[in-house]
Structure formats: structure tokens, C-alpha cells
Amino acid sequence: MSSIVHGAPPREAAPASKPVAPTAPGSVPLWKYLAPVAVALLVALIPAPAGLPQFAWYYFAIFAGVIVGLMLEPLPGAAIGLIGVSVVTLLSPWVFFGAEQLAKPGFKPANASLTWALSGFSNTVVWLIFAAFMFALGYEKTGLGKRIALWLVKVMGKSTLMLGYAVTIADVVLAPFTPSNTARSGGTVFPVIRNLPALYDSKPNDPSSRRIGGYLMWVAIAATCVTSSMFLTGLAPNLLAVELINKTAKVQFTWMEWFSAFAPIGIILLVAVPLLAYVFYKPEIKGGNEVPDWARGELTKLGGLSGREVGLAALVLTALAGWIWGGDFINATTVAIVVICLMVIGKVVSWDDVLNNKAAWNTLVWFATLVALADGLSKVGFVKWFADTVGAQMVGYSPMMAMVALVAVFFFTHYLFASVTAHVTAMLPVMLAVGMGIPGIDLRTFSLLLALTLGLMGILTPYATGPSPVYAGSGYIPAKDFWRLGAIFGVIYFAVFMLVAFFWIM
Predict the structure, then answer these.
(1) β-sheet bridge partners, residue 210
(2) Share of the chain above pLDDT 90, in %
(3) Which residues of 425-440 are buried (b: 16+ CB within 10 A; e: fewer)?
């Protein structure tokens, strides 16, 4: 193949274009720095709405400024999150604690606010996300990831769309047995598929990321959000939701009832996801026979599995077994950390490799600060006030319209949360209480509609669910693209969900 040079994969001819110069740090427009501050100040200057304490409104103003900063990215997302937490901690007597708390004898706002600021770093999902990057590092260092990626390309690489379906199928197979979508998608699927773009000369943080890398990464996060809703055991917060529904509304669901309710919705979305991504985040490479043929040759050159590859494969299977069957005995994050330790002990990766994995440490800081900031909305009472306000507006609506409106509010308020678990804990009991107060609502149907959206809402933002920061930090999906696609897919997911549910569930 004349198009293959020095072992590199063939490339499609691309139209001539001017080279894209890297953006220097000082070249970020000034307005991108000023906009988050301006939004925070403008919101803060508006009087607090009725029923919401002024300090809680100030906190929301800072949170809004952080979200704008994350969307515009004048600085890296981790730095913006750290700045947001620092500002809240510094101003905590005015923006985090009410007069009643401050008046308590012996209460020290400085200590309490610092404890809150660091709380995200003790979050188990944050460390599971970090572990996913380390697993990916192991796949890279041993060459196992490249081997699996080459095999996928050999089998399904004639079409980029078919590779999208391969990624989707992999998640579907794992989902019923892996309650952590971070472990499933971030720790198992991502470390493999991150090796695929390089085979097509698609690089992270580079214009070539759109050749195929961005498409595959978006398909992966979009698919895992669907499978997280499809199976009761596909997302840990699903199980929490079932328990809260049972306690609050005295309604119970079995695994099969859950699956039967979502299956028609899930099948439609899973079939559509690779196609939708093909439309809204179109890859430059469409496919062809050359690349699979090249991959077949590269696999022959690789020969048999090396000892390090076998060692990593054994560790990955151990982690997967722990995630699937060990939930009652050992936390998923503990499993991941133990496997990372074994990777270092077994010299699959070195400690210097771990220290030099900037993407992992950057994502750790970014998501830890966002978890704390989102949790703060509940702590200051903003979330409960918002839900109560919405409930008050439902007076006079028909039961059907009230259900649709409340489910929509429940779904899209996930923009305020960096954890599905936090969303369930803060919002689900409140929404159930609101529904129970509306005459004529079928509480079983309403409860099921709320619970089935939990996985789907993970598509909305780069911090919406555990695997989101993994893919947002991959270098293949720029922040502005992630927010745009999240909004588009969020609307599509919700529309399909409600349309099918209208005929199937309601």
C-alpha cells in the first residue's frame, strides 16, 4: 500500500487548508475572562427570589459564573473549578452560611468551608474516574490497547459508522452487570477505544481530532448514558432511586419491570446514537478497505501476546469481576485503586508514568471541585427552594401535563449537579412529594418516569455523570462541542423518552 509510510495508517486525501496555529495562552480574548465575572456579579445584584435566603442566592451567582467559565474556557476547566471553590471558601460567611449557622456557639465558618471545599477529593466517583485514566495508561504502555483496537479495525473498520456500533455494543454487553458506568465506560471501554483514533492519524488536542476520534468518543459517552437508564443495575443511583421511591411513595419496581419499561426507548436510542453522532459530529473518515487490510498486517507484526499484556489483561478482568460481582463486599473505587497498585507492583506501569499522567491529575482536580460546587447548591437550600417553587406552579395543570412538566424539570435541572447520586438524593424525594400533592397523578407511573431518566441526563454536561470527565478530558471533544452536543442529545433523548413513554408507560 503506497499510502502507508513507516507503519502509519493510510489517510484519506483532505482538501488543502491553511495550517492551524496553536493558540498562545495570551491570545484568549479578554471578554472570555470577564464574562464569568460579569455573570456572577449581575446575578448577585438581583435581589434574592422570595423564599430563598440572600446568602444562597449569592452562592448561586458564583456557581453561574463558574458554569459560564467552563463553557468559555478562558482557563483550563480544573483551574476554573478551583477558583470557584476558592472564592466560595473565602466568602463563606456571606455566601455559604446563614445567620442561624453563624450564630451557633463555637461554629467556625473558616474550618467548615474548608472541609466543604476539600470534600470533592474524598468522593469515590472522582477517584474511580482517576483510575479510568490509569487503566488507559496501562493499555497504552503495554500495547494491549493497540492490539484490541487493531482487531476492532480489522473486523469492523471498513465503516466508521460500524465502529460506532461496535463501541455501543460493547457498552450494552457490560451494562447489566456493571452498576458503575464510570467503571464500565471510563475504566473498560475508554482505555480500549482511545487507541483507535491514532490508527487513523487522529490526534487529541489537534485539528485532526475530528477525523474520527471525536466521533468515537462522543458515541461512547452517548451510548453509556442510554445503557445506564436501560438496566436497573446499569447505574448505581438507579438502585438508590428505587429505594427512595419505595420509602417515599410506597412503590416498588423489579429488575424486569424496569427493563421492560425502558427497553423500547433504549433500543430506539441505541440504534440511533451512532447515526445521530454521525450527523451532529460527523467524522472526516467514512471508511474503506485499506485500513482494515493494514490493521490485519499490523496484528501479524505484533505476534503473540507479551507477558505485560497478559498481566494487564488479568488485572483488568480482575477489576471487571470485582465491579460486577463484588459490590456487596468491596467498593468499585477500592477495586480500581487496588488494581492500580498491582499495575505498579507488577511493572505494567511505573510510578513515574502515574505521576506524569497530566490528564488524570487535571481531571481529578476538575471533577473534585465541581462535585463540591454542585453539592453546595443543596447545602445552601437552593435545590429544595427551586423544586418547591416549581411544585407551586403545577396548581391547575392536568395530571398528565403536570407529570410531563415535573419530569422535564427533574431532567434538565441536572445542569446543576455533578453527580447523578447527588441529583437523586436532593431532587427525587422533593419531586415525589410534589407529585403526591397533585390530585389524579398515577404515582407509580410518575415515579417510574422520574427514575428512568437518571442515566439519560448524564449526556447534558461534561460533568453530568462519572464517565463524562473522562471523555471531556480525552482531548478529542473540545468544551464548546461537548456543551453543544450535550444540549442537542439531551433534548433528543428527552423527546424520544417522553414520546415513547406516552404510548408505552403512561
Answers:
(1) none
(2) 37
(3) bbbbbbbbebbeebee
Which of the two residues, 136 and 347, has the higher pLDDT score? 347
Domain boundary among 63, 96, 117: 117
- Give the 3-state secondary structure of 122-147: HCHHHHHHHHHHHHHHHHHHHCHHHH
For residue 17, name the pLDDT band (cuts at 50, 70, 90): very low
Answer whether 215's CB lies under 8 Å from 282's CB.
Answer: yes
In tens, the pLDDT along 79-134 reads 998 999 999 999 998 888 888 888 888 888 888 899 999 988 988 878 877 887 78
How far, CA to CA in Å, does 118 sit from each of 365, 381, 462?
A: 10, 20, 21
CA angle 164, 421, 100 (to 5 degrees): 145
Q: Are 462 and 70 in contact (CB under 8 A)?
A: yes
Domain that holds residue 467: 374-504
Total domain count for the chain? 3
In a domain, 22, yes or no: no
Distance CA 158, CA 145 (A): 19
348 and 435 within one domain = no
Residue 266 has pLDDT above 90, yes or no: yes
Assess whether 58 and 166 both reside in one domain: no
